[in-house]
Amino acid sequence: MRVLSVGGILIVAALGAAREPTRDPLDVSTGAELEEALSGPRHDAVIRLAPGLYELTPEAAIDSTCGNCKDRATLVPITVGLTISGRNLRVEGPTEGTATIMTRAGYGLYFKDCIDCELERVTITGGERDTSNLATDAAVVATRSSVTIANCVMVDNIGAAETIAQNTVGIMGICGREGADLTIERCEIVRNSWDGVALYRDARATIRNNLIDGIDAAGVEAGGGRGVAIGVTWNGTATIERNLLRRYWKGIGVFLDADVVASGNIVEQMRAWGINVWGADTGRPRATIERNVVYDCGACGVAITRKAAYEKDEPRGRLVNTIVVHTGQNSKYDAPDYYCYQCALALHAVPEGFSIRGNVFFDNRKATEDLFDQDTTAEMFWRGRRGWVRTFRNTGVGVDERVKFHESAFLTEYPRWWN
Questions:
Q1: CA–CA distance, 118 with 177 (Å, rounded to integer)
Q2: Is the dihedral of CA 406, 407, 408, 409 positive or negative?
Q3: What is the structure's pLDDT at 114?
Q4: 209 beta partners
Q5: pLDDT tens track for 53-103
Q6: Which SS3 state, helix, strand or coil, does residue 60 take?
Q7: What are phi and psi of 241, to 5 degrees?
Q8: CA-to-CA dists, residue 160 to 24, 100, 165, angstroms
């Protein structure tokens, strides 16, 4: 209660917490009902899916902007499984059983102009690669939207082998595009044929407590684990915490003008590199990389290439308290212009003020004697365990069982680092 005085008159006003907008529930049980429920913008609603399979009928459309083109005004032909728009909208699967959406489209669930929206307890599968290699195909695509994606599964979005061969690119798990603001947590993004999560222009995301597993580590062939486990490019922004990223072509990419904080992640079993900060010739990527594990990579463990100097008030980047083990293993990548210098830490171009300290290197291979080599002995490797594990566990790694850190190849190989 508050007492106000207006012109000498006392006014008593009751104060209460602002009410959250209510949401009207709507139960659906078939793909047709789901399509009907979201046939136009929907506000203040909960779409509740019963257990079962929801088969969508995709529609052809034109994407008026290109998410990963130099000229964003490029028009791109696409297919869409389901467009979701509105405000204060939630789409949720059952608490018991599974609701699986078979999209048969390049843009599976397309959040477009959807503000304060949520997707939870839903499995998205069966994507089909679009014929244009400019389409940012994904199980979930978001543009000009704020969306929380939690406890979902994006699995087996592969596409036809012949289309993959023609396009190179496949189907991602989640793609954030222009104006997307995403929270991605406790999801399993498994066996999709391109990036696990990709962020492009003007997109930002918090990516926390997820399993992103390519399964196949397919390389150029059609299959899971092609692309980058998490790629942030153009001017995308991301906080990447406590994820298990495994069996992909590449691990975490911080490209061009991206801004990334990555901490408490395990990045392992990559065909090529583990973490790469790359600005091309003029980009200004910003990266804070701390308390991560990079393990078992065919190419370099971590690469830093930022030619542009830091501006006066620009935050400096750092690589600290990170473990890099058993990298540079595939001699196919020994040529320095293939991916990166073939060693644990490839320092191609490091701006003044970028901090590199407190990292542990062990059992890494290097292509030539003149490359970076700070591998410690086995004795020192184990001696540093206690303090580092305490630091790593303070990030909360392993708290969420869905991330499946107990299945990590690194922790299986070196259980004493955890137990």
A1: 17
A2: positive
A3: 98
A4: none
A5: 999 999 999 998 888 888 888 899 999 999 999 999 999 999 999 999 999
A6: strand
A7: -135, 135
A8: 39, 20, 9
DSSP state of 310: P
**Is-contact 204 222, C-beta < 8 A?**
no
pLDDT of residue 3: 46
Quickly state the pLDDT bin for 352 (edges 50, 70, 90): very high
Q: Taking a C-beta distance cutoff of 8 angstroms, is the pair 261, 285 a contact?
A: no
C-alpha pair distances (Å), 321 with each of 77, 145, 189, 263: 45, 35, 27, 10
Q: What is the per-residue pLDDT across 155-179, written as a single tens digit (0 to 9) for each?
A: 999 999 999 999 899 999 999 999 9
As to burial, measured by CB atoms within 10 angstroms (0-12 exposed, 13-18 middle, 19+ buried), residue 169 is buried
The SS3 call for residue 332 is: helix
- CA-CA distance, 357 to 341, in Å (whole number)? 20
Answer for the pair 56, 31: CB distance below 8 angstroms, yes or no. yes
The length of the chain is: 419
Joined tokens for residue 350? 């490091």
At 90 the three-state DSSP class reads strand
pLDDT in tens, 327-339: 999 999 999 889 9
Can you tell me the distance from the alpha carbon of 61 to that of 72, in angstroms, rounded to the nearest whole number?
17
DSSP alpha helix (H) spans, 7-116: 31-37
Reduced to 3 states (helix: H, G, I; strand: E, B; else coil), residue 335 is coil
Q: What is the 3-state secondary structure (H, E, C) of 208-258?
A: ECCEEECCCCCCCCCCCCCCEEEEECCCCEEEEECCEEECCCEEEEEECCC
Coil vs helix vs strand at 411? helix
β-sheet bridge partners, residue 82: 109
Asked if 220 and 212 touch (Cβ cutoff 8 Å), the reply is no
What pLDDT digit, counting tens, does each position of 240-252 carry? Answer: 999 999 999 999 9
Q: Determine the Cα–Cα distance for residues 298 and 338; give it in Å rounded to an integer.
A: 12
Per-residue CA distances from 9 to 12, 14, 129 (Å): 10, 16, 69
Question: How does strand 9-13 pair with strand 2-6?
Answer: antiparallel
